Amino acid sequence: MWNETHCDRCHKEVYSGECAVWVLGKFLCVTCYEQFSQEYADNYQWEEDKTMLKKEMVCPYCGCENGESWEVKADDGEIECDECGKEFMYCRNYEVTYTTWRKKDE
Ligand SMILES: [Zn+2]
Ligand SMILES: [Zn+2]
Q1: What is the domain range of residue 60?
Q2: Which of 6, 21, 56, 82 pairs with 34 at a CA distance of 20 to 30 A?
Q3: Distance from the alpha carbon of residue 13 to the mean position of ligand 1, in angstroms
Q4: pTM flag (> 0.85)
């Protein structure tokens, strides 16, 4: 399974056991991954509908999802992205629903 041996970007050999990452179909050594994620964040085109009313918070800088959005306690505020480290604003949206039932027959 783990048969990649060279970084797709710097073509340096990645030894087994060394940290390397698969990202967007590329196999990268850690150094390149850091550069790549920085560039990716710089080039990411943010459109409002990419980050609006999502089940998880989506970073408006790099587009990654925060899988533990529910753990964030405050309903709004600032948060730092785990992937690119940039801070962004968020607010939690509540969907209001109603339940109805019949009155008991008398
Ligand atoms: Zn590399
Ligand atoms: Zn991010």
Answers
A1: 46-106
A2: 56
A3: 8
A4: no
